[in-house]
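Hypothesis: this fold can be encoded by more than one sequence.
Test: take the structure tokens below, design a sequence, compare later.
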């Protein structure tokens, strides 16, 4: 299976997982079903940005995820209700929204806690339409993993996860034309975007009585930096609350993996360089170290090019090796198909050089010519 962005290009592909609009609802698409144009339209209308499809070369491969799809959907549903309420002049059922969010974050903490030596499998977020929701769930997951490795209690992890998933709540006050602008922002537009930190904090303090201050402070401080270069207060070092410092690392790590309308996604090697460059300078060094140990900069199921030019799919992740997962190699540096060889890159000089969206047509043609599969 492989995780791909929702677009007309996936019409005719086989869905590798069942996707529901909301937990307990009828599925938008079931596992094993052919994805039709109407399914794509339904997915896009509901803000679904990714689906898992059966891969042409590895149709039986299934990627493990730290957080189950159901829990991700529960988190997204709870978050969506709070965002819709924050953007509406009518303020209704806030206690129920708080309960839904609290229960969803507790599910997240339980699933993270159940994995003793977890490696988070994060993917690129490309669609702007649902970027904030996808990104917020990723950030909450990463922050919870970091907090767990810092030996935080479950109650602390729930408060951390709550702040992390709400960190971008204030973006409901930013005009859509600025959030969706297909290019760099002007100085004036950036100032408007920067206001989301304080605006989100104000919203929670004024309207959500059961969200702890240790959670809401994350919304205010997640763009602060150790050297004082952040906003909105220009805080430095330990003046930034630990939950906020952790969320900042999770936020940056996920954001640099995202592909925006105005720039391509960073290569995994560039992401590693950015994180190491900022560790201890702008970002909390301990949180960065833990993140790079327990987060893979490539996802299981992604097509990758190795530093020696060979082509393959990531089929396993290694703790402490963000660029050296297990890869099933299918082609050489000239894209000539070869017998599948599973390579564990940990402890080798090889690493991931780039991530591809699709298999090169030449490789697929060779597989078809070989009867539909490459011999092992």
């Amino acid at each position: 299976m492989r995780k791909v962005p929702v677009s007309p290009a996936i019409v005719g592909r086989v869905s590798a997982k069942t996707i529901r609009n909301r937990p307990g609802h009828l599925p938008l698409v079931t596992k094993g079903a052919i994805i039709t144009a109407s399914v794509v339209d339904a997915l896009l209308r509901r803000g679904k940005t990714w689906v898992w499809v059966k891969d042409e070369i590895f149709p039986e491969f299934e990627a493990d995820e730290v957080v189950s799809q159901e829990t991700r959907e529960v988190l997204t549903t709870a978050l969506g209700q709070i965002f819709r309420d924050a953007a509406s002049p009518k303020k209704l059922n806030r206690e129920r929204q708080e309960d839904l969010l609290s229960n969803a974050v507790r599910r997240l903490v339980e699933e993270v806690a159940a994995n003793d030596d977890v490696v988070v499998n994060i993917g690129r977020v490309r669609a702007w339409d649902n970027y904030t929701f996808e990104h917020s769930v990723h950030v909450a997951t990463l922050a919870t993993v970091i907090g767990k490795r810092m030996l935080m209690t479950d109650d602390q992890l729930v408060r951390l996860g709550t702040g992390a998933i709400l960190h971008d709540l204030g973006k409901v006050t930013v005009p859509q034309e600025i959030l969706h602008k297909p290019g760099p922002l002007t100085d004036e537009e950036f100032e408007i975007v920067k206001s989301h930190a304080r605006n989100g904090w104000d919203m929670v303090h004024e309207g959500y009585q059961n969200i702890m201050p240790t959670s809401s402070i994350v919304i205010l401080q997640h763009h602060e930096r150790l050297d004082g270069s952040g906003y909105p207060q220009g805080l430095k070092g330990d003046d930034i609350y630990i939950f906020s410092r952790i969320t900042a690392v999770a936020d940056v790590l996920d954001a640099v993996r995202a592909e925006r309308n105005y720039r391509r996604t960073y290569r995994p090697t560039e992401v590693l360089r950015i994180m190491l460059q900022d560790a201890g300078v702008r970002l909390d060094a301990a949180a960065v170290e833990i993140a790079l140990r327990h987060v893979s900069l490539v996802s299981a199921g992604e097509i990758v090019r190795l530093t020696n030019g060979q082509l393959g799919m990531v089929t396993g992740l290694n703790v402490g090796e963000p660029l050296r997962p297990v890869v099933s190699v299918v082609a050489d540096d000239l894209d000539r198909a070869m017998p599948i060889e599973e390579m564990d890159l940990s402890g080798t000089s090889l690493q991931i050089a780039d991530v591809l969206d699709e298999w090169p047509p030449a490789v697929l043609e060779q597989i078809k010519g070989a009867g539909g599969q490459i011999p092992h």
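The mean pLDDT is 88. Residues 303-369 form one domain.
Hypothesis status: open.
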